[in-house]
Amino acid sequence: MTNAILGTRIIAAPMAGGTSTPSFVRAVHNAGGLGFLAAGYKTVEAMRAEIRELRSSGTRFGMNVFVPDPAQLSPSASAVRRLEAYRESLWPDARRYGIELPQLRFDDDDAWRDKLDSLFEDPVEFVSFTFGLPEQHTVTRLKKSGSTVIGTVASADEARLAVDRGVDLMAVQHVSAGGHSASFLAGTGPSVARRHRTTAELLAEVRSAVGLPLVAAGGIMDAAGLDAVLAAGAEAAQLGTAFLRSDESGARPLHKDALASPTYTETRLTRAFTGREARALVNSFVRDHQDAPEGYPAIHHLTAPLRAAAVAAGDPERLNLWAGTGWRQASAGPVSGIIARLLADSSAS
Q1: Residues 10 and 134 in one domain
Q2: Which has the least CB within 10 A, 15, 104, 226, 290?
Q3: Does residue 47 sit in the same domain as residue 155?
């Protein structure tokens, strides 16, 4: 069913922050995959402009939307104190670049309602959600508008809730994935998810809990990884890190170079950059801020000028170098070559 809906076994994960550009998504489509734009961190008009650009080229695509967490937008007094303490700990980094740190802000829901209204009025073929699930009435309205709705989950409990909300299919993200963890229910975060050694193990558990079609995400870098999740019940695989170094990827050159550098020897889940656990190459910033508190998107805004200054200075040691556990297999070159090798070497294609 999923393959019939999506039309491919290869999905390019939505990578917010500039990686999943229209050019990248178009290249994925032209190579036989399906790419997703990322609405996260963008204005509504920027989201609409990217949709128009891809439509004009005849590209099939999806749009991914961040689900805001009300608890993070209205933190408790104790949570605010922890965030203020973290802000103070960042002053040595700020002085390193000669910049000022912004005040904490708790008013950013990533234009949640306006982005939904835009997708209701001007539907796209696929809408996926990360960091949570929309309410059932929102899912119903998107489906009535003609969109296929995809929930991103990291556990069987989250998958059951996705079924209750009415999604059409779901992406199951393992803790090995690069970038932000998709987990959102208490007690189902990355630390709990480590009991599943592989994406295929997590997928099998979710497969036994729900009957909806599944897309596997996390640590899939080659045909062997693709075949493993297909054998475990996935009907497609979602890859992100595998495409980061591609020619069409919008990732920063510093990020691409770091993925190929022998300087970096491990990845780690960290809240240091955004206040939400995300897997990154371990650099000095990750090591220096191992006790960063929860607080997304407050910490994202707090560290934004530091990250911008690091880019301007050509300093990868203070930059968020998102990467999954299989980052060493990420290769440079065109997207078409990466997808062609995946499909040619897969025994299931």
Answers
A1: yes
A2: 290
A3: yes
Clarify whether residues 94 and 136 are in a common domain.
Answer: no
Q: Do 105 and 325 touch, CB atoms closer than 8 A?
A: no
135 within a domain of the structure (yes/no): yes
The β-bridge partners of 36 are: 62
What pTM value is reported for the model? 0.95
CA distances from 92 to 83, 85, 299, 310 (A): 16, 13, 16, 13
CA distances from 198 to 218, 255, 259 (A): 8, 25, 22
Residues 6+ apart with CB under 8 A from 55: none
Q: Which residues pair with 322 in a beta bridge?
A: 280
Domain identity same for 214 and 141: yes
CA distance 293 to 322: 18
How far apart, in Å, are the Cα atoms of 71 and each of 55, 272, 281, 296, 333?
36, 19, 28, 10, 42
Note whether 170 and 36 are same-domain residues. Answer: yes
Q: In terms of domains, do 53 and 191 share one?
A: yes
Helix (H), strand (E) counts: the chain: 16, 11
Domain that holds residue 205: 2-68+109-246+330-345
Note down pLDDT in tens along the chain; length 349 residues: 455 789 999 999 999 999 999 999 999 999 999 999 999 999 999 999 999 999 999 999 999 999 999 999 999 999 999 999 999 999 999 999 999 999 999 999 999 999 999 999 999 999 999 999 999 999 999 999 999 999 999 999 999 999 999 999 999 999 999 999 999 998 766 655 556 689 999 999 999 999 999 999 999 999 999 999 999 999 999 999 999 999 999 999 999 999 999 999 999 999 999 999 999 999 999 999 999 999 999 999 999 999 999 999 999 999 999 999 999 999 999 999 999 999 998 987 5
In a domain, residue 251? The reply is no
Residue type, position 179, single letter:
G
Task: Give the three-class secondary structure for 155.
Answer: coil
- 181's tokens: 């963890």
298 by Cβ neighbours in 10 Å (0-12 / 13-18 / 19+) ranks as: buried
- Nearest CA to 207 among 151, 133, 155, 150? 155
